[in-house]
Amino acid sequence: MGEPVTDAAGARDATAVRSDRREYVLHTIEERGIKLVRLWFTDVLGSLKSFAISPAEMENALQDGVTFDGSAIDGFSRVQEADVLAVPDADTFELLPWVDPKGAEARVFCDVANLDGSPFEGDPRQVLRRNLCAAGALGYRCYVAPDIEYFYFAPPAPGARPTALDAGGFFDLTSTDITSSLRKETIRTLEAMGIPVEYSFHEDAPSQHEIDLRHTDALSMADGVMTFRLVVKEVAALHGVHATFMPKPLEGVQGSGMHLHLSLFRGDDNAFYDPSDAYHLSPTAKCFMAGLLRHAAEITAVTNQTVNSYKRLVPGFEAPVHVSWARNNRSGLIRVPIPKRDNPLATRIEYRSPDPATNPYLAFSVILAAGLRGITEGYELPAEADSNLFEMPDETLVKLGIDQLPQSLSEALRTMERSELVAEALGEHIFEWFLRNKRAEWRGYKTHVSQYEIDHSLRSL
Amino acid sequence: MTPRADDPQPTRPIAVFPDPAPIEIARTLDLSGYAWKAVRTVEALERLEPERGWGGAVVDCSEDPEGGWGICRALRDRDPAVVRVLVLVTGAQVGDLESRDHLFQDFCLAPVHPRELDARLRHLCADPREVDPESIVAFGGLELNLETYQATFDGRPLDLTYMEYELLKFLTMHAGKVVSRETLLSRVWGYEYFGGARTVDVHVRRLRAKLGEEHAHLIQTVRNVGYRLGQTRQTRQTRQTWQTRHER
For FRET with A244, which of A258, A444, B131, B239 sits at 20 to 30 Å CA-CA? Predict the structure, then answer.
């Protein structure tokens, strides 16, 4: 073993890093024969948007950004401020491994800016950046590791019910092989794109799978979740299979969640860790949890943004219903996992309500804002709820001061619109647009007469 | 690849024949920022050779073809051979080129236009067929080309982001040595980077994922200290081994 390299002199300065990074991207385009560079960004609802430029245009794009008409994208811009700039984040420049090398393509995430260069208020990635800066101002850096669940189905005909692949039917004989090999190929692709996987397994429900990602800083992870959803769908589609992140596609079995393992670091130290506490939770961690619990109902419209999300948040399917925390009780909203060894770096909390259909940039933003509010205001953590809350009568829950999460998108929106915390975290632009868009979704749902009503009422009434 | 306007010029001086150098050649080289020395004889070529060898040569054969080709032969016989050789011939001498392909990389007709000379020199210096061995960093099957920013493992390209590449480069240049996370943070990311040394751990995990399960162990964790590439110290690949690969 050689002597350690400890000389910290000669630190790189920011200008050198910036110009090197540009050179790196341009050289890679040249050397790898890249035919197309896809500029990625995300709309308010969390859909990945993309437009492609030729490699020749990339040098200018890195310098000045690329102008595009924001109003063409749902939820992105008001008509009068239509033109915005997509500014590539060169750190995220990466080849797309599923594209034929002969027509090699790369992607780069973009920040969206106004024409004067200021961050565009309608860009979720900028919203998360702003919230991460707020955490940074308090000395914290936020790390996230999601456990993402999803289903594989036969490609659905319009209006048809989903067909699970390993519960008979479509792929009968080879069913389990197909979905397991899909998962393996997905993991290979994710790792090739620098998204390391911690665990993966077949979930409880037929055709349901879970992939757990290793933690990274929140911005990289939000980018990672966007990439993840695309990779899962792309790999499945290559094999004629449809992957879905719909929160509750099948009645009577578990839905798909996206549990988030969260921690705050102060420099090299885990701010959530305290060896003197019985649960190894620091006062900071407890305040963060208290903030999340107190504001949980307000942020639920963001973390669970579809009508369908609320069909998952029901008793009996390992999804949280009550606003509570516990160490080993999976009915709670926050779980405190017990690290296998006493590892200060692994101390974290798990927020269990979000589903994989959320916009990760906005979800991380409101979660962080709620937790930080707990820290800055010094909220007190309520007592642990270690018994099964599903079995308790409502009166007992009320007596214990345990609330429920919103029961529907409508209720969640009503709670959100009164939240000064969410308005601040998202910014007025997105806050208003989100409420408007989601109220329209609820109105559309409310006028729909479902099979349930026909089955239960048509004959008897 | 296309040479870019802001490419640094080769740091090793270029040999120019004859001595004194023709004025238009001297001016073009000076204006484009090349270091150069004029040589009149093979003896002068050897005597004036820089410590790290000639970066290339511009040989004007229009006045003294015999002397010029003599210089070209001497350049080819250096160890390692100087291959970035640009010759200037008159229209009447074009026939001389036929049997001498192995003595030069490119040529232009004298009198040469300064812009043509400049463009040809740029192209010559950027020619990927000659990789400056100084710009290759290697360890085992891993190889990084510092000029083109490309990394390969056993010849297979690794698709890295910029920061992953920079991290791998630093670890490879210090292969066999333990590098602390703080050092990596300051030397790879720069002090102005927002965030802690956790960033290093996250990127090391990404690198391992990209190296693949088989080779992930190449980057070792040294508990409570930092990381190390490989087990033992290994110096940078020598020019000799690079050439072996080049000929393959």
Answer: A444
